[in-house]
Design a protein that fits this description.
31% strand, elongated, 20% helix, 5-stranded antiparallel sheet, single chain, alpha+beta, 95 residues, 5 strands
Length: 95
């Protein structure tokens, strides 16, 4: 699969494969988009690199957040769900 880097380099919201939404225990929420490239002008993107970075962030902040969810940005479907940093099954989801 060959993709061409956009003029001006990769942009977070436009070019990320996934996004991580965290709901912290103190009531705050935050969205992080995946960094699927090594630097702004990388020739390729790597979905696995972005997912690894999400998991590293969850390892760091997991005890502070109640719930975290990873979504595919192109389809909008939920990929995985975490509670206090640990991955939980998605069988019990209403959506």
């Amino acid at each position: 699969m060959s993709e061409e880097r956009p003029k001006g380099g990769w942009k977070l919201k436009r070019d990320s494969f996934t996004k991580l939404i965290t709901y912290f225990k103190d009531g705050n929420a935050r969205t992080w988009y995946s960094l699927d490239w090594k630097h702004k002008f990388s020739k390729t993107r790597d979905r696995n690199m972005g997912m690894a970075r999400h998991h590293n962030r969850l390892a760091k902040w997991g005890n502070l957040c109640g719930t975290a969810e990873i979504y595919d940005t192109t389809t909008g479907k939920k990929i995985s769900k975490f509670y206090e940093g640990a991955e939980v099954g998605m069988d019990d989801e209403d959506s």
